[in-house]
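A.,

Following up on our hallway conversation. Structure tokens first:
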């Protein structure tokens, strides 16, 4: 395939040739790359060519929850949103805490249209030897408080687990909330019906911002003890992002007079992610969302949402990942005590951020970095996340002048709803995974087509 006249995130206009699943050449437009006989040529003038997103935080629900999502439906949704690599979390049924559970999930992942990684989890009954024999993407999401799947663990087990991971040079992703700081009183009284602001706000008041910040600081301290690479998932507070930044700066500045590294309480390569729902939604949306807005960590105040977005814009956030966690409409309509936490989001990651680019709120290079280049670099999958010669041809073609309204009925996941209903997004016209077309949409008619499952485990040769 030859893509001609595409504008890259940095503004350069280039022709891009793809051969054998990789980017064979990136040359100035009209500089002499001629199409081969029978080669498909994509005229990309007026459009942007971006690296496919690497979403390091999804819950595709198989095994055990296929009524909510499957690898087939979740990866279709990913492809339609420009996500070309996903990383699945361990809180499935059975949880991915031993070798057999890993193997069961890996067999199901053969249905994926997009490339993938599989994380291993930690419980009191985990089998580290069996897990670490498998090609783990990372250890985690390690839960410091219970969420979907009841995988919250004690601090001493967390410390042991990250030491095990550090000894094997495996990164650790952490769900950081301290449940001892949850406000039980917030759930008292009449919370109203499913769709009321009181209902959703109660959950936000219950899982406090202090609980997140304290747990992040604890995770950073524990990681420092074992020299582990720790990645803080779905950071929902400016204070949490600042804690990660301060730990990183402490490590970088810890040098003695000779310039050699000194002992430090900083952490080796601490990084953090934020989600689209914490970037674009707040407690001001509680009345519309009700229990559909219940997630862990919860929606925060509008001031905190704004602070998180500002830190994304200013470079303090390393990654934007979705925490795509679908549940059915019937499940989310239960009362607050029974409705499961989580929202879908893998298909709307790029579209929402690209709409912010279109509106001048973020630069296109910043979006490229946090959804593609940074996660690929942080987690050691260097063939991903770049539009460059030799990189995997994981590519997304978009028209930034052509946004459309986000509608649940037009999305491709299994759960049938989205918290972003009615917002604007810039959706892909073409998505490639290692050169294979996995999604295509006609910009005039809106007709869509999907390719065959081509997904591979990015940790396997």
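Then the amino acids I'd put at each of the 461 positions:
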């Amino acid at each position: 395939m030859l893509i001609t006249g595409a504008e890259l995130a940095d503004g350069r206009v280039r022709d891009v040739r793809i051969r054998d699943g990789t980017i064979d050449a990136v040359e100035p437009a009209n500089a002499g790359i001629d199409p081969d006989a029978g080669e498909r040529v994509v005229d990309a003038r007026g459009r942007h060519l971006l690296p496919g997103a690497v979403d390091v935080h999804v819950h595709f629900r198989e095994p055990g929850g296929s009524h909510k999502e499957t690898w087939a439906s979740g990866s279709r949704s990913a492809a339609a949103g420009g996500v070309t690599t996903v990383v699945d979390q361990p809180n499935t049924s059975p949880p991915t805490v031993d070798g057999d559970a890993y193997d069961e999930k890996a067999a199901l992942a053969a249905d994926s249209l997009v490339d993938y990684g599989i994380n291993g989890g930690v419980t009191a009954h985990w089998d580290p030897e069996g897990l670490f024999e498998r090609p783990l993407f990372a250890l985690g999401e390690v839960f410091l408080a219970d969420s979907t799947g009841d995988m919250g663990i004690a601090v001493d087990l967390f410390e042991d687990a990250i030491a095990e991971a550090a000894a094997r040079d495996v990164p650790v992703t952490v769900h950081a909330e301290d449940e001892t700081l949850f406000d039980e009183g917030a759930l008292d009284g009449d919370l109203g019906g499913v769709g009321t602001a009181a209902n959703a706000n109660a959950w936000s008041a219950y899982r406090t911002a202090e609980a997140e910040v304290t747990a992040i600081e604890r995770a950073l301290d524990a990681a420092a003890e074992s020299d582990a690479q720790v990645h803080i998932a779905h950071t929902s507070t400016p204070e949490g992002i600042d804690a990660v930044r301060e730990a990183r700066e402490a490590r970088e500045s810890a040098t003695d007079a000779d310039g050699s590294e000194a002992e430090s309480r900083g952490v080796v390569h601490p990084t953090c992610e934020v989600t689209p729902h914490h970037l674009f939604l707040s407690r001001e949306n509680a009345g519309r969302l009700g229990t559909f807005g219940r997630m862990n960590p919860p929606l925060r105040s509008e001031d905190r949402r704004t602070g998180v977005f500002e830190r994304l814009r200013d470079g303090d956030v390393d990654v934007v990942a979705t925490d795509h966690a679908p549940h059915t409409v019937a499940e989310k309509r239960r009362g607050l005590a029974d409705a499961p936490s989580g929202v879908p989001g893998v298909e709307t990651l790029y579209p929402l951020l690209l709409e912010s680019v279109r509106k001048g709120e973020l630069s296109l290079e910043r979006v490229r970095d946090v959804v593609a280049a940074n996660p690929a670099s942080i987690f050691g999958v260097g063939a991903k996340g770049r539009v460059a010669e030799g990189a995997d041809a994981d590519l997304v073609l978009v028209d930034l002048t052509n946004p459309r309204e986000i509608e649940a009925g037009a999305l491709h996941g299994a759960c049938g709803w989205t918290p972003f209903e009615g917002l604007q997004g810039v959706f892909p016209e073409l998505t490639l995974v290692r050169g294979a077309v996995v999604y295509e949409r006609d910009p005039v008619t809106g007709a869509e087509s999907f390719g065959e499952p081509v997904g591979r485990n990015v940790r396997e040769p």
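The CA atoms of residues 182 and 411 lie 35 Å apart. Curious whether your intuition agrees with the design.

B.
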